[in-house]
User: Fold these one by one.
Assistant:
Number 1:
Amino acid sequence: MKKFNSKSCEEIMTTMYKPIEFVVDGLLAQGLYILAGAPKVGKSWLALDMCLSIAKGEKVLSQKTVQGTALYLCLEDSHVRIQNRLYEITDEPTERLHFVIMSESIGNGLEEQITDFKNEHSDLKVVFIDTLQMVRNESESNYGSDYKELSVLKSLADKFEIAIVVVHHTRKCSDSDPFNMISGSTGLSGCVDGSMVLMETKRGSRKAKLHCVGRDIENAEINLQFDNDLKKWIVTDEPSGSKSKDNIFLAALYVYLKERIDFCGTASELVNALKSVSDEAFYPNRVTRDLVQNGYTLKKYGIDFQYKRTRTGRLIILHHDRECDSSDSKNYTVVTVNGKRKQYLANP
């Protein structure tokens, strides 16, 4: 019998893991997702828009995307219908978007087909399966069978660090919780990393709300309007995004290290040091977390971070290497709010 491969609490909290990549910023990350809605509500238009936007590296639902190959399994469509839809939304083809109208089912070859495609397209970012029912084997829908079937796709998404989205239907009966309307048992929702439910405010109105929930995304309700000319769902009430506390901390750290190059000391000493460049209040018990969880971002700015345990305590060691700084001269902005200086870090 194999022993547990355990890790200590300290080891996990001080290890710089590769951050989860969002394919669609704040909405779709690496993992398995459900996109559910009533028949003919416009799920496929949304799925196609997401695939095309990711393939082109363009915004979708007002959110940035990470460009890469997208695979769309249109298992209820024909090539003619796909062609018609494509001409409705774009006149510029892209080599990074691929379509499939026939596939094997889960457990009977689908995983191997996706694996082969991934091997041929190393930059694969997302796979849409439209619809889930077309690749299912189980005739019964109970928690165990639903969870077991989808866990195969989840393992595949985790293995290849891609997003897999299964398009599914909602039940006819209404519920105050839109996620309870996803057809099937709670095993589906329990297995996936996130769920999106597209619900029209009134049948045929072409106004809808996209309900989103997930492990790596914030709960959100996005109001949409279907544009019949563009054949796209358009966000009607863009939320005004506020800069995160992590962003302010990283910006202050960057400004400090650009001037002083090195730092070695405790979390409390770092907080005190940052007072010279920012009026924002930072807290020692959050400093290590922010450094560890943003380690990959710091490297892009030429900042090397080490966490060292000594007899007297834990030391934070930081160094800024100008030659490794891949950002430009406009990598942060300084804003004064209520008399306080706040730096905001831009993407490198």
Number 2:
Amino acid sequence: MPQLAASFVVLPTMDGSPLADGTRFIDNQPLDGPIPTIVAQAVSAMQRNMRRRSVVEGAGRQDIWDYPAEAIREIVANALMHRDYHPTAHGTQVRISLYPDRFEVASPGGLHGIHAGHTDIAQIIDTDISSTRNAQLARLLGDVVIPGTGRPVCENRGSGLRAAVQALKRMGMGPPVLDDRVRDLVVTVHDDIVHLAPKPFTVGVRFGSPHLASGSDIDLNAPVSTISASHQTRQPLYERTPDELIRLLEAGPRSSVDLAAALGTSKQTVLNWLRRLRADGIVAPTHAEPRTRGNKWMLTPRSST
């Protein structure tokens, strides 16, 4: 039953429409296997397509992503645990979609039991009574761990969404938005940073973005409201390229197949990035025709200086 797995897609525009050049998606990956593995794959796929900032304080360093891994993990786990597994719903996967301004997790079947029809997440997480469509599955997932974390998939105490809300709040983000459509439930996390109280940053922040000078440290010692808008506004997904791709090419020319394998993404995703980097004069093919067998990609002299 392959549709009982999940799918992950990165869309280049806010409404999901293709780009002018026909690009329909930036990344696309089926997530298959046991539920704990699917959850781990979902977090990995999201992080592969997000920006990463490294906060340096003293001798320590902490990577901060656009969306906290804990929130992604809990929302995806909830979708897989509470989805409708009735035979009439077997044709629909749990769908994880990353847009330039948000990510959505859609699962077959609306909210269940006492939560049905409620879309106020505050009321749901504050309810002492837990309601689950798949009680036996929930019990099982409380005894298995997500690979690489040592943590159970769920605690089976209705605490998953509460943990997601808290993780988002710690980053200054608003809570997930629920859309109960009866046939399916869509949980949306918007990338609109909510600053409840101005708080100065007192640590250096290294932005992982090819649009900033490589390795540039920005000391933010002013309230958030005074920070340059260029550092607050999320770049469209199709304009972002992982720092890892640039670093790989700094070591020498590599083929698109090698880059895809090293980055853990599809060859088509890498080609999309390379095509835009080439248009910006950052990379170039080693052959005049990029489709030539044996072609590799390299940084241009301008981008290396």
